[in-house]
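Bit of a strange request maybe. I'm writing a small parser for C-alpha cell strings and I need a real example to test against, not something I typed by hand. Could someone generate the C-alpha cells for this chain?
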Amino acid sequence: MNNAVRSFLSATDSKGVAACKGMGKTFLLKAKRLQLQEENNSLFLLPKNRLVDVPGTIIIDKMHRKFLSAYDNWINLWLWWVFICCHWKNFLI
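Reply from user aminoacidic:
Good idea to test on real output. This should exercise your parser:
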C-alpha cells in the first residue's frame, strides 16, 4: 500500500479520489466505506445497503457476500487490482 492510499484510508477529513479509468478508484472507495461503517454505526451512507450505486441488480451468493463483507478482503482485492493494472503488459505476453 503506498502513502497516498494509506493517507486516504486513515483520513478523518474529506478527501477526493482521482485516477485514470481502471486504476482501482471504486475498490478504494468501497474499502473506505466499509471502514467507515465498521468504525461508526451511526453514519448514514448512500446508497443504502449497497457499497456503490449501480444500474440494475447484482446477485451475489452467500459465500461471496461473506467474503466481501470483510474490510481486509476489500483491501486485498484493491491491492491485487492495482498490481495487475500496473503489470498488465507482462500478463499479455
